[in-house]
Amino acid sequence: MYENSFPKKRFQKTLEFLEKHLEKNSSILDLGVENPFSKIMSDAGYKVVNTSGEDLDDELTAISSFTGDAVTAFEIFEHLVAPYNALKEIKTKKLFISVPMKLWFASAYRNKNDVRDQHYHEFESWQLDYVLEKAGWKVIDSIKFTNPVKKFGIRPFLRRFTPRYYLVYCEKR
């Protein structure tokens, strides 16, 4: 199911979490362009459409016009300057989000060659929960998990037991 270059642990945990809360054959708007995980969701029996690469800080039409079963935003909101605006526009009753957690031993990701490929936010769990609540969502379930890397050093060692990802299932209040 997974190719060697894909983050198998993250994808497996995310799919298991999604399957726990959302029936197969549900229609999903997956924020962001088509990606390896949107293919995995489709292969698992979900009807997935993606946004088209528009700047979701400024262009919210795809979000506000979607009337399916759920919205997913896996590794998306850290790239937005104002994720609150997108959260307010979602019309579905179910929302699934994963974000990288702020690590005390590493700076936020930044790609100096591509302004769209950097993290404006790396969240502590309470911060994402607060934004969700303010935007009208109730957190129903969440998990945190690690992302070990096969490298040597202090940071790779810390990644073995420090949660890197926060995955949340929410319902509209």
Automatic annotation (TrEMBL):
Superkingdom field: Bacteria
Origin species: Nonlabens tegetincola
Protein name listed in UniProt: Methyltransferase
InterPro entries associated with the record: SAM-dependent_MTases_sf (IPR029063)
